[in-house]
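Throughout our pipeline, every protein is held as a single compact record rather than as scattered files. Such a record has a labelled line for the sequence and another for the backbone structure tokens. The remainder of this section carries one protein's record, kept here as part of the documentation:
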Amino acid sequence: MTDTGEPGRKARPHAGRSRNEQARQDVLGGALELAAETASRGFTMEELAARAAVSKRTLYRWWSCRSEVLAEALVERALTVVDTPASDDAAADLRAYIRSVYRQAHAPQAAAALRLLMADAQTSPAAAAALRAFTDHRRDTCLALLSRAREHGVVPAGRDPGVMADVILGTVWYRLLTADPITGDTVADEILHLLSR
């Protein structure tokens, strides 16, 4: 085993190119933890390797930079904690989705990871690509719910789903940039009210 630099912790054995799922989860969780702990300073791949008890070589075999790790961690988190309901009530489904996105984006770990990813994207093409992959994934989910809402008359048929998605998701980014977290459900409800007029 390879020493991780942290006393008492050893890197997991890794054979071949396939990912060890537990190690992957440890890396993704460690990235979110470190983003929250280090805030704007960020963290290094060395720190992440030590936190996740994997070798740096393993990290770089799976990801080229911390932004790729953060983007994957955020996508995975969104898949498990963001509500994407599909009930008979398209308005309630869209409302639940928007509320969930706003709550989760402003949870401490996610907010720190999103800010760090956004900052990295300003100077790194790899980080910009990772941010784009994350935002494209979130936008696709939002567009699917908006299309369904439009089919059910929740939002007017003439509205551009892309612009509506920008309003919903752009609010998250604006609030993250200005350190003005969305608390409660009022903002989500107001956004839905504006879109449905």
